[in-house]
User: What shape does this take?
Amino acid sequence: MLERAKRVLCIEDESETATLIAEELIDRGFEVSIAYSGQDGLAAILREKPDLVLSDISMPGMSGFEVLERLVRLAPRLENMPFILLTALADRDNELRGRRLGADDYVTKPIDFDVLEAIIRTRLARAARSEIWPSDVRLSDREAETLTWAARGKTSAEIAQILGTTKRTIDFHMDNARSKLGVANRTSAVLKAAKNRLIEP
Assistant: This one.
């Protein structure tokens, strides 16, 4: 039985760019749908649950950052869906912001489609592995405590103050928890730990 093509949603307000991305990815064996605004993209994600989202950052109305923020808030069930941001500018601050929000990767335009394909396939494989994670994951008390405070919206510095330790120690516990849970970022660690009742936010 043939495996179904992976579904990629491309959120891109420039129609020529969107068409080029769709054609390239379809040629490489993906099923692609396009949304031409952040609002339409968010609606499409919630309606269709694609396997991966490729979103431009700079769009009128709702930026790629805002799509990701709302997605994290509205649909924790989609935490394992890879989210890749596209931008015309290589900007470290934007990249950091995207990664802190939970973006899995950051691709600069003009797009090198061989690199993009490699990123997409790697992210999809990682997402598939994280769906099958061991049920015997055990967080230490301090890891669980750190994730619980993070789930309540506290930064590492604030958690350090609450627990009477250093930010570096909190980041260490956060990285350990992330590694045990098999996720790429803090937001996904919090969501996965809460979903599997390892913490009670």
Summary: DSSP finds nine helices and five strands in the chain. Strands lie at 7-11, 31-35, 52-56, 83-87, 105-108. The longest strand covers residues 7-11. The CA atoms of residues 57 and 64 lie 4 Å apart.
